[in-house]
Each structure stands twice: as C-alpha cells, then as structure tokens.
Amino acid sequence: MKRFRKWTIAFLKAAISIGILSYLVWDAVHKGEGLFRDEHGFNPVLLRQLVHHAADGWYLLAAALATSAGAVLITFLRWWLLIRALGTPIRFGESLRLSFVGFLLNLAPMGIVGGDMAKAILVARRFPGHRPECVASVLLDRILGLYVLFITAGIAIVLTGFYRQPQPIVQTVSVAVFAVSAAMTVALVVLWAPDATDGAFLRLLERMPLIGSAISRLAEAIRRYRHNLPLITAAIFMTFPVHLMTACSIFLISASMFPRVHTLSYHFVMVPVSASAQVLPVSIGPTEFVLDRLYATIPLVSGETIPPGQGLLTMLVYRVITLIIAAMGVGYYLSSRREWTTALDEAESADTETAAVLKMG
d(Cα 163, Cα 157) in Å, to the nearest integer? Predict the structure, then answer.
C-alpha cells in the first residue's frame, strides 16, 4: 500500500508538470504571438536564430552557471551554520557532501519528500541523540529561504517602482508579495516570542486541520533558535545574496539567448515571485508558468512585449544549469545509495506533513 501511494503521488506530480510544460510549449509554438511564429505561422528559422544567438552568448551562460553555483554554496553554508548552532558536531566537508546529494534529490524528488529530510535523518544517524536538532535546522533553513524570498521581492518592487505598472497582474503581484511578507513577519515574531501559555499555544496550532501538525513542528524548530538571534540574523542576511544571485543568473540566461529582455532590476522582482510557486508540491512547472506569464504580460522599458515561451525557455535552461551543479552529488549518492534510499523511506513514513513544509523555500 505504501509503495502504491508513493508511485501514485510521483505519477500525479509528473503528470501535472508535463501538463503545464506542454501547455507553455503549445502557447509558444501555436499561439498568434508565440515565440517561434511570424505572420505566416510557425517558422523554424526563428528557432535556428535562437540557437545561434545562444551559441554567441556562451560566456553569459558560463557566468550564469558560476553565479548559480555561488548561490547554492551559500545555502549549503547557511544550513551548516544552523545545524552547528544546535550542537551537532558535523564538519563542513561532510555537510557539503550531504547537501550536494540533498540538492540532487530535491531536483528529482522520489515520492513525497526530496533530499532535505533524508539529509537530516542521515545526520541524526551519524550523531545519535541529535535528531530533533537536525530536523529543526532543515525546517528553519527552508522557512528562512522562503521568508527572505518574499522580502527580497518586496524590496525590489519598491526600489524599482514595479508597483506603478498599470497592468492588473502587477498590482495583484505587488499586493500579494506585501501581504505575504507582512504575514510571515508577524508569524515569525509570534513564534519566536516567549511562550506565556505553557505550551497551550502550540497545542492549539497542532489541532488546526490539515496543516496543524506541520505548523506545530515549525514552531518548535524556530523556538530551538530563540537564544541564537545573532546567528538567525546572519542567516537572513546570507539569504539575500542567494535570491539576488539567482535573479542575476536567470537574467544572464535570458540575455544570452534573446535580443530583447527585461531589465535586471525587474528580474529581482519576477524571479522571486516565480520561485514562490515552489510552495506547491510540484517540482517543475509552476515556476516556469509564472515566469513565462510575467515575461509576456509586463512590457519592456521600450514598451514592446515579449512573446510567450521566452520565460519558459529561460527557466528550462536554468534547470539544466542546476542539474550541472547537482551532478557533483551523483558520486556521493551512488557511493551510499542504499543509505539514502532507506533515509528517504523513513522520512516518508514518519513525517509526511513536515516533508510537505520542506517543499517550500
């Protein structure tokens, strides 16, 4: 039964991803203003021009790869600092190996969970008695990533004047980013504050339908760091470069392939907003859809518009770049494949709700 559920969930997630990507490809190829169409319909010459343009811009792709790798390494360092702060004596080199495999499995998740919870379980096995600390570090690492994602988008919206765009989607995105940022800030402050209810507040959270148990675990994880405010502050400031470097990477990819691209400052808004779609339990598809719609809906500074498909292709190339980075974890995974598979199974069996939380950020 458990195996059937695992494969059913994997099938549904794959079907949703394929459905979204198929629609975006159809939009780019068959729609009137699609990326590979002219006044006569689909034109393969436009596709060849794109390939040649990308070949000429190889140095921009190389810069995008380096920028993305730097962002990923910062997230690995952030998690190591968070887990060390709770007394788990893991060395940075070992945490780096585990993080590379976790990153690899997050890109190609097996079943319900990706690599983060399995990473926490493996650390807990190597350091018995530290399982709560390991899970707390992974949960907080994820929640900080998601929180700073929205804060980065909000700051960029204000500094770039993005909210002044007349399109309804811009107004909706701006209001949503500000609302989520404010709500998360209040929630984190409340969860970090001393518990004057002697645990009654956590028990109340746990009784919430569907997400109560996961929220309660998040609260417990956050409170483990109550006396590490300088570290949390450092982790938050470390996360801003991660999102900014990711936006730079996607801007460089777009500039390497297309003659007309949105400004870098607008990417500081559009990329975090698109990445927020990762809260959905589908690895590929939602982010591509949001970025492609934003690319095509929001006009360039010149007033021109970008055809559907440009955001999709940009994001797919970015996926390839992340796979290249994750390839460094293949050897580590193959050398301990049985151990990782066991950890993934244990994570699925023990913490389905928590695993859902780990999909965020």
Answer: 6
